[in-house]
Amino acid sequence: MKRGMAPEWLTSYAVAYMIFLYAPVILMPMFAFNDATVIAFPLSGFTTRWLEVLWSSDALHSAVWNSTIVAIVTALASTFLGACAARASARYRFPAQRGIIGFTMLPLVLPEIIVAVALIVMLMQLGMSLSLWTVVAGHVLICTPFSIAILSSAFASLDQSLEEASFDLGESRWGTFRRLTLPLVMPGVISSLLICFTISLDEFIIAFFLTGTDATLPVYIWSQLRFPTKLPSVMALGTVLLVLSIGLLVLAEWFRRRAARRQGLDASSSKGML
Amino acid sequence: MGWGLSREDRQGLTLIGLPFGYALIMLAAPLVMVVTFSFWTQNYLDIDRTLTLENYKAVFSQPIYQTVLWRSLRISLIVTIVTVILAFPIAYYLSFYVKKNKALWLFLITVPFWTSYLLRVFLWKVILGYNGVLNTALLQAGIIDEPLTIILYNANAVVLTLAHAWAPFAILPIFVALEKIDRSLLEAAEDLGDSPFRRFWRVTFPLAIPGVVAATLIVLIPTVGDFITPKLVGGTDGLMVANMIQIQFGKANNAPLGAALAVTSMVFVAIISIGIYFVGRKIGGKVAR
Amino acid sequence: MPKTKPIIELRDVRKSFGTFNALKGINAIIHEGEFFSLLGPSGCGKTTLLRMIAGFEPPTSGEIMIDGKSMDGIAANARPTNMVFQSYAIFPHLDVAGNVGYGLKTKKMPKADINREVDQALAMVDLAGFGDRAAHELSGGQRQRVALARALVMRPKVILLDEPLSALDKKLRDQMQVELRELQKTLGVTFILVTHDQEEALIMSDRIAVMFEGEIAQLASPEELYRRPATRRVASFIGVMNFLDASLDSSNASGVTLTIHALGKVSIPHSAVPKGVNPAQINKVGIRPEMLTLLFDPSDKAENEVKAEVVSSDYYGDMTYYSVLLPMQKDPVTISMRNTAGRSIAASGSPVRVGWGAESVVLFE
After folding, report:
1. Distance (Å) from the C-alpha of residue C66 to the closest C-alpha of chain B?
2. CA nearest to A202, candidates A21, A54, A74
């Protein structure tokens, strides 16, 4: 049997599948720069006016600003909590460990609508009003499990004797963290920050349920989808977001590889992405 | 690195206390409240706190809720099966036939999903619409005479859109499981006389089952709760439980009923998920992990 | 051996983990400038003891004194000790100079001084010029030297080594044993080595503490341990020991007379009887394989002789180890013979005469 050569049907399937995956993604920039207000074929010519429309929209600006703040705060808080959990489970043995970690990871397997409903019920009961902070609270809840997953392997691969060696050489606890632990987990930290940022940026359901008067970007997009004339500029917005997200991801991967290479680890491991 | 175990235990507990405490306050407490809430009733803006099974009775007897619940479960199961079946070959291709730069391919597979989910669903609406991309292209090419209507504003559109949306989430776990398979096992099987087809069914597939189970659960659970896709492309036939929940919390002003719907769908999903997990364990089960 | 001042005192040191007693009352004094080894099988507590001296675990009870000061409550980073870890614990994100200079940077030493000290330390371990190598580019032996240099550069009072050579291949290990020994002698720093390899301990150490199950069975020089093991267990752990059935004949003012069933009568002066041994309870004696000789030539003579039969032989190049059946002794004994020029190898099954001397008989508890 020829090893290494895929059967024809499988290769064709792979090609067809990739086309299927990319169909919407290719269409988006196409219609973002299409000189027509209707999203349909045939195409009418190139224009950048939709980008200009976007640029001049105040509502969009404030949505972008809101989303950015929410995403940054979420990324920082989730990464911090994730680091605490990852470090605790790597270094210590405490009672009911698996149950506690399992529970913290629970939001991963709950549909977002359940999380949104749960939070809004609680807020209703407490009489608290909705705002961007409630959105942040919800986002941190669903992003922390991702952070734990990413940071767990970073902290687990930290050989305990490294920290003991640093201690033995006279370094304090804080010094050991600063000079040894932090540099070694930094790729994971950056990964976690970027992934949490991206998740928060794109998250809709919780934001929709929990926001007060300030809209995040996805909520803004949702409000625009009713209006056919706004659609091309929405396409433009999507394209910008796509380019931004890809840029962030590439950046994250570059950092990870650079840090891994400096430490002589396997820089091309596909596990790094996961 | 502390003085004595008890201090280490304490340090560990303090560290884990932060994220766990957050989850307790932000998740456990709210979930408990949702369950409690589902036993109350709401009259316009007043909430009556006497415990009652009213909401659950409504959920299980009134046809509209029944329909939506069963439809949600049915669609979710179909989406899951379709997505996983479509994802498996590509994961297989990536694991066994791509030699260099697997990470790059994984990256390429995930790129489409860094667009806003909303926009992706909306684009499928655009593609599948009466005057949409697919129809205009097929008309121009002369393959059809009239635009297709079966592809939008019904359950089919929901299945297609979600199969696209969850693709990488299904591909990744299957890929990871396939990567873990020791290639020398397959060489041994070949050496013992198995054809490629038999090798797949006797060696590869059983060992990949944990990945398939993971993919199934990763797709099934969020799908049941999906809100956007049914709303945009589902039409009236495609309305799912999440939309119904949102209506209860919104215009219908019946949050307790919404809570009851949420709890009910969660229980169903949990039962199905546990079932899938155990079936998966049995089939793939004797593999030492 | 000139006795210098004690650098480490262990006073009734005990350690338990839950219900498990890892160390059951360790008492020992280690002298300054000594190469001291903790030797024993895995699980005997030697690494636990080393880590307690380093400060990574506190004793459950008892006291550890370093240079006259009690270490109670003093954390690992404040102790005048430095450790070479079994896994070497080389910091992967720093180069060799960064690793070796790590502790000096903590002390806030000026950069020029750090560089000078680091170069000196690297030269000491034969790694001059390796300063800018990355950690992952080092071989196992090189990592071990970097770990050593990193500890040496701190100029501690005591260097602790946790099975530093166990991960190296045999040739490298043999070479490092000699180098470590010479380095220690040159520097005059106290070394405490943990190992399960008795050959290693014998080669490198001034004194060895043999440990079994959390207790020190015997603390003595290598020669003392080999020639006069205190207990049966120490005897069989260090080298190979033949155990022969024996019984007491008589005991008088000058010594004891024993009958070794396989070899005959032997008289042993009281000075050669270890303190804890009750002559009436002696039922076994020991004799090392090299203390028994196969007499090939009719003209070969020994202090005592007995007729025996060769069961089998193992050829090791420079030595041959024979399995020989002695009269009245159920299990065959091991006899080692050097393969000198002209000496043939006795065939299995052939009768042979075995020579032995009274002085080589060992008594133990």
Report:
1. 19
2. A74
Percent of chain C topping pLDDT 70: 99
Q: Which residues of C touch A184 (CB under 8 A)?
A: 92-93
pTM over 0.80: no
Residues of B in Cβ contact (< 8 Å) with A16: none
Please tell me the predicted confidence (pLDDT) of residue B5.
45
Asked if A249 lies within 8 A of B107 by C-beta distance, the reply is yes
Domain presence at residue B32: no
What is the average per-residue pLDDT within C271-294?
Answer: 85
Tell the CATH topology of A29-273. MetI-like fold (1.10.3720)
Contact between chains at C56 and B1 (C-beta distance less than 8 A): yes
Pairs across B and C, CB distance < 8 A: 5
In a domain, B15, yes or no: no
Contact B1 C58 (CB under 8 A): no
Which amino acid makes up residue A13?
A: Y
Residue B81 lies in a domain: yes
Structural domain boundaries, residue B143: 55-284
Reported as a pLDDT band with limits 50, 70 and 90, residue A263 is low
Domains in chain B: how many in total?
Answer: 1
| Chain segment A19-70, per-residue pLDDT in tens | 888 888 888 888 888 887 777 667 778 888 888 888 888 888 888 899 999 9
**Domain limits, chain A:** 29-273
pLDDT of residue B85: 92
The CA distance from A179 to the nearest CA of chain C, in Å, is 9
- Is the C-alpha dihedral spanning A169, A170, A174, A178 positive or negative? negative
User: What subunits touch chain A, counting only 3 or more CB pairs under 8 A?
Assistant: B, C
Please, which contacts does C171-178 make with residues 24 or more away whose CB atoms are closer than 8 Å? C172/C140, C172/C141, C173/C200, C176/C141, C176/C144, C177/C203, C177/C204, C178/C203
Check which CATH number belongs to the domain holding B175 and give it.
1.10.3720.10
